[in-house]
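Before the break, one more example. Copy the sequence into your notebook; we will annotate it together after we see the structure.
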Amino acid sequence: MSDKNTVPVWDRFVRIFHWVLLAAFIAAMATEGEPLFVHVRAGYVIGILIVARLIWGFAGPQYARFSNFIYSPRTVLTYLRDVLRGRAPRYVGHNPAGGAMIVVMLFCLSATVFTGLATLAVEENAGPLAPVFGTVTAVPSSGFLVSTALADDDDRRRGHKDGDEDSVFEEAHDFFAHFTLFLAFFHFAGVLVSSFAHRENLIWSMVTGRKRPESEIG
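Here is what the structure looks like once it is written out:
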């Protein structure tokens, strides 16, 4: 499809956000705490991206705004019913199901980052939540985001007792991380279904930022 037959939909920020978030999430899931330094840094990237996306949801262009793709639960359910019947309408921006998925994923990612930071504070006495959940009331002056203790992470973690129980935060972190992974696969399946139903490559659209115009919705 040539550019003359398409219109810009996804702005540069949305596209960069999407692919960097995917890369950071894969890095976080692949490490799962080993090495902790990489896992923590990936988590910080995800957290920064979430904050930026929340701001962009109010300050960004038309199709990036929450007001453009957050629909009522009834509208979402109606759209899903139409998908099952093979007659779901096409949307230039996010469809109701896609919009709902974004909201749920942003919530789950936020919960994953928060519980991860809390776990880091409880188990390593490091990170920005160390003053709240750590064993001391101050974060080491050597670093606010990642303490120097993490530099020796692998050796130190091998010294932990196997009998140590997981904290509540760690269990919650594990739950939200894996639930987000499930949502990501579900989201990918939805993209494939919509791409097939409306005969357009939605994955490539998130690369180029362009889609067929609204006049072709029918």
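Residues 137-144, 158-165 have pLDDT under 50 and may be disordered. Residues 3-150+167-213 form a domain with the Fumarate Reductase Cytochrome B subunit fold (CATH 1.20.950.20). Try to locate both features in your own notes.
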